[in-house]
Write a structure and sequence with these properties.
Chain A: Keywords: Cell membrane, Membrane, Transmembrane, Transmembrane helix, Transport. The complex is a heterodimer. By secondary structure, chain A is mostly helical. Chain A contains 13 helices and no strands. In chain A, α1 packs antiparallel against α12, α5 runs antiparallel to α10 and α8 packs across α10. The longest helix of chain A has about 40 residues. The radius of gyration of chain A is 24 Å and the shape is globular. Chain A starts with a helix and ends with a helix. By secondary structure, chain B is of the alpha+beta class. In chain B, about 30% of the residues lie in helices and about 25% in strands. Chain B is built from 14 helices and 19 strands. In chain B, strands 1, 8, 9, 10, 11, 12, 13, 16 and 17 form a nine-stranded mixed beta sheet that branches. In chain B, strands 4-5-7-6 form a four-stranded antiparallel beta sheet, with helices on one face. A two-stranded antiparallel sheet of chain B has the order 2-3. Classes of the chains: A mainly alpha, B alpha+beta. Chains A and B meet through α2, α3, α5, α7 and α8 of A and α1, α5 and α11 of B.
Chain lengths: ~325, ~525
């Protein structure tokens, strides 16, 4: 298992280098005149040129990349070209917001979808059909529509939760819970719909295996069979989907962050990419790669723990 | 019985959930003293400052700066000027020398006195530092120090908008000891009524300010001011409706409709931004047809502005054919409707100019300004008279480069403020420069603008109105309408709009009686 983890960490590091080169190259392709964008249409050209030079934009792309990479390896991700904010500080402020959503949604999705999926798979009949209908509805409804309705009902009309903003967990745990509840609810509905179907299918599949029949003939109780044997084997595909959902939330959080006015990395990434703010986007991408690598590693380790056969493969 | 118990349990659970949620929401956001005197003022905005260095200040982000910096002159809500760091000012006869008398009781936070040297250092740095407003002081020759509290600003030529600029970005005074550092961008150092609360500020999303204990002037009503940036008006309106934001400017008509349905919100209307088709190529260098006055006039006759205003902005605004707003001395109400919607006349004009077969016009389309309904409306109206419009989609990052630097288009649809100072509009839209990058000029415009520039205080009205009429007759622009924006506040705050600016000054907020 240790070798497995070390191999995954090493491949994660290679991935970071490859993605950093690709991202830097892609961000440099548009040839946006950053100085002009920053200083506006009225600024004299000599000011624009001087500003571009101060950002190193008069250098070849490979020199700029090496400068960035050298500084990044020393822990200096630089400053935003557009707001002068320190990239590391900004990420330290914003990553917890998006991670709060991602972890919250993953937790809620895991609990609810495993419960519903196992229930539907074991009970079948009306319960199964009901769960399937709910899953299809949850999956079919546009995410932004769900979010708009949720904020309108629970925040604006009922006033149960704040409609906008974010309170850090360290400032106020209850405040944090209040500000992330509706966004998590919004993002969880389609995620639950997707994972529930996976769990249900996996449970039905496992229940039809020979060894389950054998266990039944040996007189094991149904709950014991479900929780000790079915769930363990059905978890593998479901966890894989859950892991993919987690990574996908990095993109899916954009709309929710915008609607709730959350200062996370989702909405910010769009804004800064359009502007061509390379230091900030590189910081976001590198952090994202780390989150993705760690998430995938955790999913693999969890699957390996639940199902020893997976470790071998 | 069992069913009733279950229902009761369900109701209890729901009530508990609601109570918990209410408790959470109370803990999470907002305080009871929000918007009240001595409490906290929370402003929501969609404008983000790139930096808090005064040299990089922009008018639309001025409140971020006004919290920590004072300007030399105070611009009152009605656009008139009042003392601030300068207590008195006067021009010489040539209007190239402006004498300023400065306060002698103001210091920066480190004890450095605010004096003539500070003014000289700030003003002389401003045009050199390369900020977005640097050109507003491009006429600056030097700042002469007369004594510790008197300076004379020497200009290369008269600048009728200088007082406006000294009450705006160029007039923000920073600690001279900090001017050579890079720290001002994130650690502002001024003499303003507040200090930046760096612990609660997350640059890029929220700027928090706390009252400066030893402010030299009259205290503003709030102990704390928070300005939060959002990227959509839906979030702003939700924040206003739930009391998490005390005040915000709402520009989109559909969000204004949502506000109108909420009895707890207060609104103040302001017609400020003119939406127009700005023409750059009036000599026909890129598109020969636009060199004909008749074609430019045909563009103006072809648009059904009433239908545009009604359908695109629910009638919220005023139709106009001129670039100067009602607060400017150049404004002439008759010119608002100089060009009626007259497609037949437009076709005649095109024929007179030899374009019976039509004209092709390629324009840039930035989604932030030209939404699909506006693009379709313009395309249909112009297409109806034989002007075939093609839209090129541009994103925010490419727009300035493509339009201003590469000069790829003969015009663009743009929203421009209509400030009280006619000279600000002239510099921005008429004289060779930002939106006249091809440097088009004719004798009338050259003579009238020279007259306005040289005119003594308050004596430029006639020349300004003549210039305005000439620009309309020659169809230099294709204005659509002035758009009504709404200053929306909750039930604790009132705000007074700022003349010539969509964003109110920070001084204009007060508790609602």
């Amino acid at each position: 298992m240790i070798n497995f983890v070390l191999r995954r960490v090493a491949s994660g590091l290679v991935l970071m280098v490859v993605i950093s080169v690709l991202t830097f190259g892609l961000l440099s392709i548009p040839d946006t005149d950053v100085g002009r964008h920053l200083l506006g249409p009225a600024a004299p050209q000599e000011h624009v040129d001087a500003h571009n030079a101060s950002l190193g934009l008069d250098q070849p792309i490979w020199v700029r990349y090496l400068d960035w990479a050298t500084a990044a390896l020393q822990g200096d991700l630089g400053r935003s070209w557009f707001t002068s904010e320190d990239v590391s500080t900004t990420l330290a402020n914003r990553i917890p917001v998006t991670l709060s959503l991602m972890l919250g949604v993953t937790l809620v999705t895991a609990v609810v979808s495993f419960t519903l999926g196992v229930w539907a798979g074991v009970r079948r009949g009306l319960v199964d059909r009901l769960v399937q209908v709910l899953a299809v509805v949850g999956y079919a409804l546009p995410g932004f529509l769900i979010t708009l309705v949720i904020v309108l009902v629970f925040a604006v009309q009922l006033g149960w939760f704040p409609a906008i903003g974010y309170t850090a967990l360290t400032d106020s745990p209850t405040g944090w819970l209040a500000t992330v509840t509706l966004p998590i609810l919004s993002l969880s509905i389609p995620a639950i719909a997707g994972v529930t179907q996976q769990v249900r299918s996996a449970v039905i599949d496992v229940l039809h295996r020979d060894y389950i029949r054998t266990l039944r003939t040996r007189g094991l109780s149904s709950p014991r069979i479900v929780f000790r044997h079915v769930l363990r084997n059905a978890a593998t595909p479901a966890l894989t989907v859950l892991g993919l959902q987690f990574v996908g939330l990095l993109g899916g959080a954009v709309i929710v962050e915008q609607i709730f006015g959350l200062p996370g990395v989702g909405a910010m990434t769009v804004q800064y990419t359009v502007r061509g703010d390379i230091p900030m986007i590189m910081g976001v991408v590198m952090t994202t790669v780390i989150v993705v690598v760690v998430a995938n590693l955790l999913v693999d380790v969890l699957i390996g723990w639940l199902n020893p056969k997976a470790r071998v493969s | 019985m069992l069913r009733r118990m279950r229902r009761t349990r369900a109701h209890t659970a729901l009530a508990a959930l609601g109570a918990t949620a209410l408790a959470l929401s109370g803990c999470g956001t907002g305080a009871d003293d929000d918007g009240e005197a001595g409490g906290e003022l929370t402003i929501g905005t969609m404008t983000m400052p790139q930096s808090l260095d005064p040299a990089e200040a922009m008018g639309a982000a001025l409140p971020f700066f006004q919290a920590v910096y004072d300007t030399l002159l105070l611009r009152e809500p009605d656009g008139s000027y009042a003392p601030m760091l300068a207590t008195d000012w006067s021009y010489d006869e040539s209007r190239t020398e402006l004498q300023l008398e400065l306060r002698d009781d103001v210091t920066f936070t480190d004890g450095t006195p605010f004096d003539a040297e500070a003014v000289q250092a700030n003003l002389e740095r401003f045009p050199e530092a390369g900020g977005g407003q640097a050109q507003t002081l491009s006429d600056l020759e030097e700042v002469e120090i007369v004594d510790d509290h008197d300076v004379v600003i020497h200009l290369e030529q008269p600048n009728p908008a200088l007082l406006f600029y000294l009450s705006d970005a160029a007039g923000l005074m920073a600690n001279p000891n900090a001017l050579d550092d890079d720290t001002l961008a994130t650690e502002p150092d001024g003499t303003g009524p507040y200090e930046l609360d760096t612990g609660n500020t997350a640059i890029g999303s929220t700027w928090a300010y706390t009252r400066s204990d030893d402010y030299w002037g009259e205290d503003l009503p709030y102990d704390e001011v928070t300005i939060t940036v959002f990227d959509n008006e839906n979030a702003l309106v939700n924040g206003l409706r739930t009391g998490q934001i005390n005040s915000a400017l709402i520009q989109e008509v559909d969000q204004q409709d949502v506000v109108a349905d909420d009895e707890d919100l207060h609104t103040v209307d302001q017609d400020i931004d003119m939406q127009s088709l700005l023409l750059f190529d009036r000599e026909g260098e890129m598109n020969p047809a636009l060199g004909d006055t008749e074609v430019r006039q045909a563009l103006n006759y072809a648009l059904d502005r009433e239908a545009m205003l009604e359908h695109l902005r629910s009638g919220q605004g005023e139709i106009t054919n001129q670039i100067f707003g009602p607060e400017s001395v150049a404004y002439d109400p008759e010119l608002d409707t100089y060009y009626d919607h007259d497609p037949e006349r437009a076709r005649e004009l095109l024929a007179e100019a030899g374009h019976e077969d039509g004209v092709e016009l390629t324009l840039p389309k930035m989604q932030e300004i030209v939404g699909d309904p506006l693009a379709t409306s313009i395309e249909n109206d112009l297409g109806d008279v034989g002007i075939d419009v093609t839209w090129d989609n541009l994103d925010e990052g490419d727009a300035i480069q493509s339009i201003m630097v590469e000069q790829a288009y003969p015009g663009m649809v743009m929203n421009n403020a209509q400030p009280a100072s006619e000279w600000v509009t002239i510099v921005e839209l008429v004289l060779p420069g930002t939106f006249n990058f091809l440097g088009t000029m004719d004798d009338t415009i050259a003579e009238r603008t020279a007259e306005i520039q040289q005119a003594p205080e308050g004596e430029a009205a006639d020349a300004a109105q003549e210039l305005n009429r000439h620009l309309v007759e020659e169809a230099w622009f294709v204005p659509f309408y002035r758009m009504t924006y709404q200053h929306v506040t909750d039930d604790s705050v009132e705000v007074e709009p700022q003349s010539g600016m969509a964003v109110p000054s920070l001084y204009n907020y007060s508790p609602l009686d």
